[in-house]
Amino acid sequence: MRIALLGATGKTGSEVLNQALAAGHSVVAYARRPDAVTRAPGVSVVSGQLDDVDSLITALEGCDAVVVTLGPKVRDRNKPLLAFAIPAVIQAARNAGVKRIVVLSALGVGATIANTRYPYRFGASTFLKGNFVDHDAGESLLTDSGLDWTTVHPGPLFNGARTPNPTIVDAASGTKMPGSPRTMRADVAAAILDMLENPDTYGKQMLLTSVQAS
After folding, report:
1. 2-209, which class in CATH?
2. What is the pTM of this model?
């Protein structure tokens, strides 16, 4: 599979990149800072801004899917990011003929706040609120985009090895995630790559944590 990846220079995006290459996929990394992208066989880089539709089309042409793992730095957590990036990605995907898109979100964004428990719910409603509003503003546009979309909603992200049995479930199931839903980036990357070819996840908000849900 040929995957267009936005956010390849971030911690989770770089994990997606590495796991994709290990699985035999090729990756087109779309980056504002192309020099920061890990160079390896199977990786090509397209430089551009997140709202540059023409450059995005160039990156997406010939790809089978697009993965978005964008996230703001902590100091910029209340600034818009997904709200202006997602419209451009949707337009570029349509023009390039790419139907499949998986977007990294977070537990507590949009309707998934109903799947949270205290104390995580408190943080989602306060400290993380600005970032989550931005995510929801962008991701809500996917519903009527005509694309085969999935949003992935992990708990707080940590580095570390994959865990044997992460909890991965459709938010519409009503499942309540743990109050401390610690999630390994390696689990997130593996789940995203699995979902790319799983039509059962189309049009769904998928919850994810490395902790077992009760």
Report:
1. alpha beta
2. 0.94
